[in-house]
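Q: Fold this one first, please.
A: Sequence and structure below.
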Amino acid sequence: MTDTTSPVGRPIRSFVLRQGRMSIAQQRAYDQLQSVYGITYTPQAIDLNATYQRNAPKILEIGFGMGDATATIAAEHPENDYLGIEVHGPGVGSLLNQIEHRELHNLRIVQHDAVEVLRDMIPDHSLAGVHIFFPDPWHKKRHNKRRLIKPEFVALISQKLAIGGYLHCATDWEDYAIQILQVLSDEPTLINTATDYAPRPDYRPLTKFEQRGIRLGHGVWDIVFTKKA
């Protein structure tokens, strides 16, 4: 999903670029629709209203996987504009296919590292919300340093949020939920919308994987903070 770049030393990637094989439908969508619904990374801020040709709340999703939840949210909330970031080609092809078939004119994709997209392309105070659903937990202790949710990354996200904008994280790993809650609580520009963990907001659909986990008694934790005035 992103590099966790530090001011000094080598960046530690929070993702491993496993492209995998695309299905025929994913490859077709990738080849034919990337130029229509994709936004090419550029090291300069973009005009989001011009990109979507309207003035509407802009919501960013980091690491959308195969894009099922992203497409559902965009379809159910046409009043918002959505920008999804993902590095893996099959997921990009899958979501491009859904954009076409569901006619999601309010959804665009950037296939690039999320830190660079946020840092370089997204204007400060321009986002109404940021979604990070089920980021890679890197559950082995020696790999915890690769986790996406770190203080410097959360500070960057907050910089891009408008006053009152929200950051919504969800994970099914309890130790990662504890870490996320602590990191967000330590960010002075954000405030928790709940005492600790939040109820799942109605806009976040349950995935098949999540439904199966719930049936097996697995926990899911939603953490939702907003930008202070």
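Q: Good. Now the second chain.
A: Here it is, same layout.
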Amino acid sequence: MGKSRLEAFSDGVIAIIITIMVLELKVPEGHSLAALLPLTPVLLSYVLSFGYVGIYWNNHHHMLLISHKVSGAALWANLHLLFWLSLFPFTTAWMGENHVAAAPTAVYGAVLLMAAVAYWVLQQALVAADGSDSALRRAIGSDWKGKLSPALYLAGIALTFWQPWAAQLVYALTALLWLIPDRRIESVVQE
């Protein structure tokens, strides 16, 4: 099966996720910049989640760029990933509205963790569809970021019961880890 429908569907769902997140932002009461101050936690949660959705979209694009086949298992794995990403607007709003509360921060971390697991499952399904000597398998390599991220999310979830702000910092630092350019796929494409 070709990958164009999978890409188009995923792009559409991700665009809707971003749209829903921005629609959750409420206009401040008042016309001064000071009116934005009470919305700072909501805006920061939005920026973090927008970054995460962008990271997933970018990596999804690169992963499909070097994949050649899409199996039924990959289609289901992709839906699994999109399911967890579709929860970002809800968890973003909940965490933003409740600033540094433990439960929303823990649930946000759990959704991040499950999205990371779902991405790994999709990656494995695409490798299986293309074969173990695929370009994607070579590009993945040791995947230290992919292995470190779930551990950081688990640490963040545990931190929520001590200091929720520290957990949010861990989530932000993990996103920054992924913003550092990863040349693995580009190097395989140039081979």
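Q: Anything worth noting on the second one?
A: Residues 4-189 form one domain.
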